[in-house]
Amino acid sequence: MDVAETRVMNMDNVFFAHDMAQDEFWMDAAIELMTDNVYITIDLDGFDPSICPGTGTPEPGGLMWYESLEFFRKVFEQKNVVGFDIVELCPNEIEKSSDFLAAKLYYKLLTYKFELNNSDENFEDAPATTFVPIGKNKKFNTQND
Among residues 114, 112, 113, 86, which one has the least CA distance to residue 100? Predict the structure, then answer.
């Protein structure tokens, strides 16, 4: 962390990785500090380099995959996430796992947003669709079928 950042940051709103590792309630505490409408910026530098080495500034002791997903899911469940972005991916020719992590994280967050928002819909009232299995469409059948 840059020294200039520490001068302007509100320490009551900051959660350091070494504190989070020892506090089982950090997720709830962080969510309580959020407003009802939330915009999420995910800096990939926050992930542990063992799972995301392709960042601008890899830092040991960062977040792991499943704890991060648990946190983001809780945020989507409890807050109105109005948008999100993912920053600090530093792709390289040799290591591709960070690219996949970023893409999968993006997909997961979209899933949380739309899965949780659609969970109250009644799909019984949805219009019926016609499904024709491949090979069963009479238009393409021949006498030898």
Answer: 86
Q: What is the C-alpha separation between 137 and 10, in angstroms, rounded?
A: 64
Q: What is the pLDDT of residues 49-73, one digit of tens each?
A: 999 999 989 889 999 999 999 999 9
Quick one: how far is CA 4 from the chain centroid?
Answer: 29
Residue 62 has which token pair? 């960062």
What are phi and psi for residue 56, nearest 5 degrees?
-65, -40
The tokens for 112 are 């949380």
Nearest Cα neighbor of 105 from 33, 144, 52 is 52
More confident residue, 132 or 11: 11
Check residues 139 and 102 and name the one with the higher pLDDT. 102
**Residue 17 CB burial class (10 angstroms; 0-12, 13-18, ≥19):** middle
Instruction: Give the integer Cα–Cα distance in Å for 74 and 68.
Output: 10
